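Hi D.,

Good news: the full-assembly prediction came through. Inputs first.
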Amino acid sequence: MPSALVFFNELSDVPSKAQRELLTLASRFDQSTLAVASEVSQDAQNVVANYGLSKLLVAPSQGDIFVDHALSVLEAAVKQSASDVVLVANDNFNREVAARMAVRLDGAVITDAIDVATDLVVTKDELAGSYSAQAQSTGGTLFVSVKPNSIDDDPQSSGQQLEVQNLAIQSATAAQVRVVATEAKAVSDRPKLTEARVVVAGGRGVNGDFGPVEDLADALAGAVGASRAATDAGWITHDAQIGQTGVTVSPQLFISAGISGAIQQKAGMQTSKCIVAINKDVDAPVFEIADFGIVGDLSKVLPQAAEEIRRRQA
Amino acid sequence: MTEETTAPLKIVVLVKHVPDVQFDRHIDSDTLRLDRSESVLSELDEYAVEAAVALVEAQGGFAAGHEVIAATMGGKSASNSVKRALQMGASSGIHLNDDALAGSDTVATSKALAALIEHVGAVDLVVTGMSSTDAETSVVPAQLAERLNFAQLTHALAIDFDGASREVTIRRDHAERTLSLAATLPAVLSVTDQANEPRYPNFKAIMAAKKKSITEVSLADISLSAAEVGTAGSRTSVLNATERPAREAGTVINDSGQAGIALVDFLAEQKLI
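Then the structure:
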C-alpha cells in the first residue's frame, strides 16, 4: 500500500471542507502524513487525529516572501516522509506549489482530480467536466490537486495518537517575490463557492439586482455565483464568477437564474448533481441540461421559492 | 508606471493554439489526445499579449529597443496563434515546431518552453495567460519560474512595472486575501482576465503583422531530444478518457404564478431540502 502526504499551506482551528476531504482521502492510505507550512493549533491537531493520520510535520512561516516557504516545507516533507503520493487542494496557490515541486523532484503532477485510488490511478475531469479521464505517474512522486466536493468528508477514527514533529527546512533557493501589501477580503457568512453544497447563480437576467439570488441562496444555506456578464457589469465581485474563465463548481444543487447557459457558462457547472434553471427565454440553452426548468421571471420565482422554503422549515 | 526604462526589455509572451471553446470539444478515443482542428489563440492568452505590449508602450515603445517575442510550441498550425499575437502588437514570433511535442504533460511542456526561452536568450520577462482553455492546469507558468529560476508572479489581477528599478508589482488573490507582490526581473508573469482589455487588431495592425518574422526552431535547435518531450518525456500517462453522457433536459414548466412553490416541491422530492 502506497503512503500519502497531505500538504496545507495554512490550517486554521477548524479545517476547511476541502481540507477535511483531503484528510479523508489520505486516510485510505497507510501511514499518511500531514505537512503544514504554518502554526497548527491544538484544536486543529485534534481534528486531524480523527482522520487516522499518523504524523504531523510543522514548519511555521517566517517573513514576507511569497511561495518560498511553502516550497521549502513541501520539499522537506516529501523527502522526510518518502511518500508515494502528495495530495493538495485544487486552488491556484497549492496547484502551483505542487507543480513546481514535481519539476524540482522529477515527479509527476495531475490537477483537477476527483479521486485517487490506492493503486495511484487518478480520476480527473477534462474539458471542463465534459470528459472523465484516468491517469497515473510514469515514475517519481505523484503530486495531485483534488477538486472540492469530490470526496465525502468522513473521519474514520477517534483519539488516534498524532505524532507532531517540527520540520527542519533548507533556506529557500528560488528567486524572491516579496509580499508588499495584504488586504483582507470582505468576509461572507455564506459557504465558499467552490465548496458549497448548494450554489445559486445569477446572470444578465438579474438586471443589476442580486437581492433575489442572495435571498434564495441564504434560504438554502448556499453560496452565490454569477455569470461573466454579471461580474463584468459590476453587479457582483469577480470572485463569484463561474465558467470557463472563472471558478468551476460541482455542488449537489445548482440553481441558475437569468443565465442563458452558453457553452462557456456550462463549462463551470455541468458536473453539478442537480441543475435547476429559471429563465424568461424558453429557448435558453440552459434548459437542455436542467433537471428542472422554469420559464418565468426570476424576480418573482426566486422570492416565492425562498419564502416557501422558510415556511416549510419553520 | 514610469516614463522610460533604462535598458531595453526582452519579453517573451507564450501563446497557445487551442480548440475553440465556443464549440464542442473532443478527445480522440485511440490516441487519448485532444482533437486540435478548429483551433484558435487561447482567449486567455490575449490578456498576456495585451499586458506585454502595453508594458512596452508605457516604457517608450518599440522604438526604445524593447522586444515582445510571441512564442509557441506544437505542430504546424500552432503558428496561427503567433500570427494573432503579432497582429495584436508583438514584434516578432518564434515557433518550436516538432511533431514529437504532441502529448506533452505540464512537466514536459515546461521543459520544452524553458529550453525555448533559454534559446531566445537574455529574456527579462516571460508573460503568459492565467491558464490555457484546453488543459486548464494553469501550472506551467509556475513550473517555468522553477526551471528558469525566475520570480513567480502568477495570476496577476493588476500589473505595475517600474522601469528604473526593473521591478514588477502585481496584485493576486491568495486564500481570503489580496496580496501585492513585487519582484525584480527576470520574472514569469501570468495574467488573469481582470488585468486589462485586450485590443482588437485593426486593418493597419493586421497588415503590419504580415511583415513581422516568425522563426521556426526544432527540438535539436534548442538542444532537446524527442525522448525528453511529448509522451516519452511526460511524467504522467493517460489511461483512458470517456465523454460524460450528455445531460438530459428534465421537466420545464411555465410560471403561471406558482412556479416558486413547484421549485420547492421538486427540491423536496429530490431530498435537496
